[in-house]
Amino acid sequence: MSRSSDTKQANLYLVLMTLTAIVMIMGLTLHMPTVYAADEDEDEEYDDDTDYKDGTFTGINTKAREGTEEREYKGNTEEREYKGEDDDNGEEKEGEGLGSNVASMVLYATIAAVAGVIGYTGWKILKMRSKVKV
Amino acid sequence: MMYALLYLILYFITLNPLASEEAEDIAKALGWMAIGIGVIANVIFILYNRVRKLSLTYLGSSSNAIRSLAVMYKPMLNMHIALNTIGYIAGMVHGLLFIRYLEPITLSLAIVMSVLMLSGLLLRYTSSRDVKIFNRLLHGQSILTIMLVLLIMLHVFTADD
User: Fold this and answer.
1) Is the CB of A16 less than 8 angstroms away from the CB of B118?
2) Could B108 and A110 be called an inter-chain contact, meaning their C-beta atoms sit closer than 8 Å?
3) Which residue from B115, B123, B139, B146 has the highest number of Cβ atoms inside 10 Å of its Cβ?
């Protein structure tokens, strides 16, 4: 196998891995608003007095604000978009099975395990190559 | 005979989505189809490899059984790749159809499936020595297989929620 052929193979491999990474990142990006939307259903009680205080329109939901300020995703615009969409189907949240926290842990554990296995395998190859050279 | 049986099974599995009336049922059937094809493709190939290795240990390399098993290797490998590719595509289409219900367990499953699929394809279709060794080690990692089975089970149990 010539050097240029090796480089081509390596480039192909890198391109494929980059594509996988892009898909993973896209998936994570899509997943994030879903989690926020699920949490958002808990705040439905705040919606009743939204925008009105003492019979006058204020445009600010103070309770909801207090509720969201404690969260990390404060100021996230996606949160607002999803809140609007999910207002009518709050029941979806009820049977969430393992719960979003455990499920998120599964995701992080998977990413860590996959990265670990890839890293370990790469390290093994590098070790093997360095032994051959010596 | 075995191929005829496989085609028959695949025929009925693929007919199932077409027979369903609602789009959601079709998407669900695609998921089951991916699981079914994956089980067929991998169980048969793993069993074949085990039998080949065991018979090599106990019968020796000069046996006729070993020779006939060795001849079968390429077709078995091609079947393994083809079925897994179909299963992977079915699984991904199922995932894309249900993208609005995407949750962490499903995403984890997609990641593990993609890593195994990519390493398998690269193992088969690249000729560079290092890339081949890397992918052979990666593709044969039992932790990835265990994770895949566990994630499929978790996905099946929690998908309806």
Assistant:
1) yes
2) yes
3) B115
Write out pLDDT tens, residues B107-122: 999 999 999 999 998 8
Q: Tell me the chain A residues in contact with residue B160 when contact means C-beta distances shorter than 8 Å.
A: 95
Question: Using CA atoms, how far apart are residues B54 and B27, in angstroms rounded to an integer?
Answer: 40
DSSP symbol at A71: S
Token couple for B2: 């075995």
A64-68, B8-12, B156-160 — which one is most confidently predicted on average? B156-160
ipTM associated with this complex:
0.73
Mutate to test the interface with B, among A11, A121, A132 (most CBs of B within 10 A): A121
Beta bridge partners of A56: A53
Q: Domain extents for chain A?
A: 3-96, 99-134
Closest CA to B115 of A103, A28, A30, A19: A19
Identify all chain A residues contacting B157, using CB atoms and an 8 Å cutoff. Answer: 97
